[in-house]
Each structure stands twice: as structure tokens, then as C-alpha cells.
């Protein structure tokens, strides 16, 4: 089967253009996603490069072959920077400039410029390096567990593997001098990018959508001021964890916090001062719990922490440290040093069949016992 090279180049140009339009449309709907714009620019540049190669019979060699292929490397560099943007990393432009510069310098060497085999081999090596860098950035430098991250990283990785084979074939096969008459080998070299680009576009958009959905879910479960779990989310995850741990007979300790005289603080210093106190306290609590514990803002000035695998003694120690540190470090707002204290109710449960609602009731009673006792106290209920 003979693969017509000009036709494949036209198809590739059309596909990259449609993919670029899809990316731009996606970016226009949510402009903070800068990575999508990078990928759209990379695809648009790929379209222009294909057009240059299609018109190579009517254009100077340096423009059609030199600039056309250099643009491919710039496009891969843009895609790499798009992956960096997706991972929250700053753009780096040296790959965008180094690989095209190497290519343009190589085109000044007659032995390379006049040989289709050498040009294919060199372009494959340069593209392969950038493709591996792209795969590495997507997979290794990602800090999340998105389902589509792996498949997306696999696309440039597979492309890099294909480019290795293409390099070997270019240096071992007997190739014509004109790429437009290169036959099935050249055709396969163009067909493969069509498939890879199509896969990358679909998977890349799915990856972006997946992260957006995760962010929306997280926002729906997070208190906007403190960054802690909101009331509904805390109750949900704490209940499930207690049910799971109680089935195994492990200890769990629940801490309920209430900032003392919070209404007076708002009335005297303003709600901005109250917000500062809430943020300072939330930061303090997170510093005193482990990553396996849950902390939430369950009311206006009320917080809760579920300490998993924590006994009564350690639970009281944690509560005391939080209470003491908060009392010893007044908040600073609008030039004022404002002392704020917190009351804490503590309940620890051990064994099978622990009921989360009963824990909440017991911790709430302990909290109000601390309030009645004069505030700025820790009261531990009997388990």
C-alpha cells in the first residue's frame, strides 16, 4: 500500500488546525487554564509547518524545510511549557530555542541539508528529545493523581519510541532525495504524528476537564476562608473514618473548638479582625495534627479535629498545646495586638461499634463545660 505524502501532509495540517480550534475554544471558556493556550499555539504552529512542507516545491528550501522543521521543534517546546503550566511550574524557553537553533545550523552543512536520510535522522533525534521531556514533565513532575495523566504522558513517550525506529530506518534504508516521493516509509512517518496528535488532543482535554472537576469538588467541600473542610465535608469524612476505625477497634479522639467571645471581637475590631483570628487558628490547628487527621470549620467560630489512632492522653495533650499556643500569640490586625482564646472539648472512644453522632454530642457537652468553667480551657469527657 502506497501512502501519498502530500495528501498525508494536507490531512495532518487539517487535523492540527481542528485540534488547535478545539483547544482555543476550550481555553476561551476558562481563560485561567494557560496550559491549554500553550497547547493550542503548539498545534497552530504545527499547521503552519505542514503548509510550508506542502508548498516546498514553490518555496525556498531554507523556508520550507529549514523553517518548517524548526517550527515543529518550537511547537514541541510550547507543548512542554504547556505541561509545565499545567503542573504549576514556570515556563522555560531554552528547549524552544536550542533545538531549532541546532536544526538551522545543521541546514548550513551541505552533507546534512542535501541528504533526506540525514535530515530525517536529525529531526527525529531532536523531536525525540523534546517528546521525552514532555512525557517526563507530564508524568514525573505532576503532583496529583489524575486518571488521565498517565495516558497523556504515554502519547509523547510512544512518539519518542517511534522516532527512534524512524532514525534507525532513515540511516539504513535507501531513501529518495525528494520527501514528496518517499513512499510508504515517509508516509508512515507522517501518519504516526496524525494519530499521536489526535490522541494527545482528546486526552489532553480530558485531563484538563478532570482536574477542573476535581477542583470544583474540592471547592464544594472546602471552607473558603480557612481552607479547611466545611461542615458537610467534615461530618461526612469523619463519620466514615470513625465507622471504619471502630470496626477495627482502634482509638479515635474528637476535638471541638470554639473561639471565646468571638462576637465581642467582631463588634469591637470589625469582621476583618474576626476573619484574621479564624485564619490564624486554622493554621495553628493544622500545625498540631498529622496528615491522616481531619480538620474542619463546622460553624462560624467553631472547629473540629478528628485524630485517628489517638488515645485519650495524647488527645488532651494536642488540645492543650493548641489552646496554650493560641492564647500566647495574639493576632495582629490594623495595628492592634488582639488576644484571643479558645475553649476545647475532647472525647476519646475505643473499641467496636463507636457511633460518630454520640461522639459529637459528648464532645459538644465537654466544650460547653469548658465554656462554663471560665473559657480558655480544655475539658475532656469520659470515654
Structure description:
It is a single chain. The protein is an alpha+beta fold and 383 residues long. The protein has two domains: 5-220; 231-380, Alpha-Beta Plaits (2-Layer Sandwich), CATH 3.30.70.270. It is built from 13 helices and seven strands. The protein has helices spanning 5-29, 34-54, 61-86, 94-106, 110-113, 116-139, 149-172, 183-220, 231-248, 262-269, 271-287, 312-328, 356-372; strands at 252-259, 294-297, 302-308, 331-333, 336-338, 342-349, 378-380. The strands form two sheets. Strands 2-3-1-6-7 form a five-stranded mixed β-sheet, sandwiched between helices. The chain has a two-stranded antiparallel sheet with strand order 4-5. Strand 4 and strand 5 form a beta hairpin. Helix 1 runs antiparallel to helix 2 (34-54). The longest helix has 38 residues, at 183-220. The mean pLDDT is 88. This is diguanylate cyclase. It is an enzyme of class 2 (transferase).
Amino acid at each position: 500500500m502506497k501512502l501519498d505524502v502530500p495528501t498525508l501532509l494536507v490531512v495532518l495540517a487539517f487535523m492540527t488546525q481542528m485540534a488547535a480550534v478545539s483547544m482555543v475554544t476550550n481555553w476561551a471558556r476558562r481563560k485561567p487554564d494557560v496550559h491549554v493556550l500553550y497547547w493550542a499555539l503548539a498545534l497552530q504552529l504545527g499547521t503552519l509547518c505542514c503548509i510550508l512542507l506542502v508548498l516546498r516545491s514553490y518555496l525556498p528550501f531554507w523556508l520550507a524545510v529549514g523553517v518548517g522543521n524548526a517550527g515543529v521543534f518550537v511547537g514541541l517546546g510550547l507543548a512542554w511549557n504547556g505541561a509545565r503550566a499545567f503542573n504549576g511550574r514556570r515556563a522555560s524557553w531554552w528547549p524552544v530555542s536550542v533545538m531549532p537553533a541546532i536544526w538551522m545550523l545543521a541546514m548550513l552543512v551541505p552533507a546534512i541539508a542535501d541528504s533526506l536520510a540525514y535530515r530525517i535522522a536529525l529531526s527525529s533525534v531532536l523531536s525525540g528529545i523534546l517528546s521525552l521531556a514532555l512525557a517526563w514533565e507530564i508524568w514525573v513532575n505532576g503532583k496529583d493523581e489524575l486518571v488521565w495523566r498517565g495516558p497523556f504522558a504515554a502519547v509523547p513517550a510512544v512518539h519518542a519510541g517511534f522516532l527512534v525506529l524512524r532514525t534507525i530506518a532513515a540511516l539504513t534504508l535507501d531513501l529518495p532525495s525528494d520527501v514528496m516521493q518517499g513512499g510508504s516509509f515517509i508516509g508512515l512517518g507522517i501518519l504516526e504524528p496524525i494519530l499521536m496528535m489526535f490522541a494527545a488532543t482528546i486526552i489532553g482535554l480530558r485531563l484538563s476537564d478532570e482536574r477542573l472537576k476535581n477542583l470544583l469538588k474540592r471547592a464544594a467541600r472546602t471552607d473558603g476562608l480557612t481552607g479547611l473542610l466545611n461542615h458537610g465535608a467534615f461530618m461526612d469524612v469523619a463519620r466514615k473514618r470513625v465507622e471504619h476505625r471502630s470496626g477495627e477497634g482502634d482509638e479515635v479522639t474528637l476535638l471541638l473548638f470554639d473561639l471565646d467571645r468571638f462576637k465581642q471581637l467582631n463588634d469591637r475590631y470589625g469582621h476583618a479582625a474576626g476573619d484574621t483570628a479564624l485564619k490564624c487558628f486554622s493554621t495553628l490547628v493544622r500545625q498540631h495534627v498529622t496528615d491522616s487527621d481531619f480538620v474542619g470549620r463546622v460553624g462560624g467560630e467553631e472547629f473540629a479535629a478528628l485524630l485517628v489512632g489517638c488515645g485519650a492522653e495524647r488527645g488532651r495533650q494536642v488540645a492543650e498545646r493548641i489552646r496554650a499556643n493560641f492564647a500566647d500569640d495574639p493576632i495582629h490586625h490594623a495595628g492592634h495586638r488582639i488576644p484571643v482564646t479558645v475553649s476545647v472539648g475532647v472525647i476519646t472512644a475505643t473499641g467496636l461499634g463507636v457511633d460518630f453522632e454520640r461522639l459529637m454530642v459528648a464532645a459538644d457537652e465537654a466544650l460547653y463545660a469548658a465554656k462554663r468553667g471560665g473559657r480558655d480551657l480544655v475539658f475532656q469527657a469520659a470515654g
